[in-house]
Design goal:
The chain has about 190 residues and is mainly alpha-helical. The chain has a domain of about 120 residues. It has six helices and no strands. α3 runs antiparallel to α4.
Length: about 190
């Protein structure tokens, strides 16, 4: 019986040692596997965040490009409706004052309608200054026209517009341009 017990212990002790070793190895393997799974999950989340940031940066770059184009186009609009520039581009030899008035107002309206979509890239206050500048230039053109001026030479009418012009401190075009420049500087 003693022999049997001794044989049993000789078989049981190595089997228990092997089981303990297998248990420890499996536990280590499972912990390592869980750690690798967490690492891969974190790596995947990091890649997702990186792609989201890159997408946002690309989107911001596109929006910035559109904003810069809007500032440029609106500055050009304001320069084009500035009375001296507007008259120079539209006056034609032999033209009457009435014809010039129609042409100037038509040009302002076309320029404005062509650039109206740019307002989505501007601050509302800046857009309001641009609209006010357009309205004041149109008002100046209309105020400069009198009943006796209609059939006169366009050059006389142009001189009337330029003489009535805007005071430097009250120039709506200058105010709108300054607002565009401030907005651009804030970018």
């Amino acid at each position: 019986m003693m022999l049997l017990l001794r044989d049993f212990i000789l078989i049981l002790v190595p089997a228990i040692i092997v089981l303990i070793m297998v248990y420890l190895m499996l536990r280590y393997f499972l912990k390592e596997n869980a750690r690798q799974f967490e690492f891969l999950k974190d790596e995947q989340e990091l890649q997702r965040l990186k792609m989201a940031v890159e997408k946002k940066m690309a989107s911001d770059k596109t929006v910035m490009t559109y904003k810069l184009q809007a500032y440029e186009r609106m500055a050009m609009f304001l320069e084009r409706i500035n009375p001296p520039n507007l008259i120079t581009r539209n006056i034609v030899a032999g033209q009457t004052a009435g014809e010039l008035q129609k042409q100037l107002l038509h040009t302002i309206r076309e320029e404005y309608e062509h650039n109206m979509s740019q307002q989505i890239y501007l601050l509302p206050a800046t857009w309001e200054l641009i609209k006010k500048a357009k309205e004041e230039v149109s008002g100046l053109i209309n105020v400069s026209m009198t009943a006796e001026m209609v059939d006169k030479d366009a050059g006389v009418y142009a001189q009337e517009i330029l003489s009535k012009g805007f005071e430097k401190k009250d120039d709506p075009i200058d105010k709108a341009l300054q607002s565009i420049k401030r907005e651009l500087a804030d970018l």
